[in-house]
Amino acid sequence: MRLVKLAPSQRVEGRWLLHLEDGSILRVGEGEVVSFALYAGMELSGETLAALREAAAFAALREKALNTLSLRPLSRRELLQKLTARPRKKPGEEDSPPPPDPRQAEAVADWLEELGYLNDGEYAKAVARHYAAKGYGVRKLKDELFRRGVDRSLWEEALEEVEDPAEQIDKLIAKKMRGEDPKDRKALKRTADALARRGYGWEDIREGLLRYGAEDDT
Q: How far is CA 146 from the centre of its chain?
């Protein structure tokens, strides 16, 4: 296969376009241009072409990962799910493109972790702080960490970032009770149920209700 034309991309800095004689175009980085010693008119063996296609796929996956993380932080599992999702079929295509190689996606994730752009420990802490600030309890925080694929070994350290829930519980109880009598059992149950749905444990809720003035048998 002959490399008909080699030109820099006008849209993405550092990307090069390889126009092949079969009409296809490969997009690679400057590193591949140098390492493969590419030039216009070069004859590419089947082995070299396969290696170039793999390098092009890896470069595209790295670019997608960086663009994805620039939108919002993700856990490693969330990023891998996005990287390995099957691409949508474009208009005019008979079949959908094959999904990316999971091994390449893992390699991209490793690369991002080495650079510090992907860090599940810091991500877990940020998730815990975010939901705690919104008034959710530890159970809800754990649910979110589980849903996002954060390893359980990182949960404890992340939850240490969360302040004592007592102050937040007191605020929520005052808001839910709306000045009602602390002996109103119906209002107390409604408030306790609301806090439980937010992920607070019963013992924390009970102590909060006692601080509000409820009787000890609540």
A: 12
60: closest CA among 18, 93, 108? 108
Q: Are residues 189 and 105 in the same domain?
A: no
Q: Where in the sequence is the domain holding 37, given as residue range(s)?
A: 3-86+99-115
pLDDT at position 89: 63
Closest by Cα among 84, 118, 87 to 102: 84
pLDDT at 97: 64
Shared domain for 34 and 132, answered yes or no, is: no
The pLDDT tens digits of the residues spanning 178-210 come to 877 878 888 889 999 999 998 888 888 888 888
Burial letters 179-216, b for 16+ CB under 10 A, else e: eeebeeeebbeebbeebeebbbeeebbeebbeebebee
Q: Are 158 and 128 in contact (CB under 8 A)?
A: yes
Amino acid 9: pLDDT: 86
Under a CB-based contact definition with an 8 Å cutoff, are residues 1 and 17 in contact? no
Instruction: Return d(Cα 195, Cα 175) in angstroms, integer.
Output: 11
State whether residue 41 is helix, strand or coil. coil
Cβ-contact 68, 79 below 8 angstroms:
yes
pLDDT digits (tens, 9 = 90+) for 83-107: 998 877 666 555 556 778 899 999 9
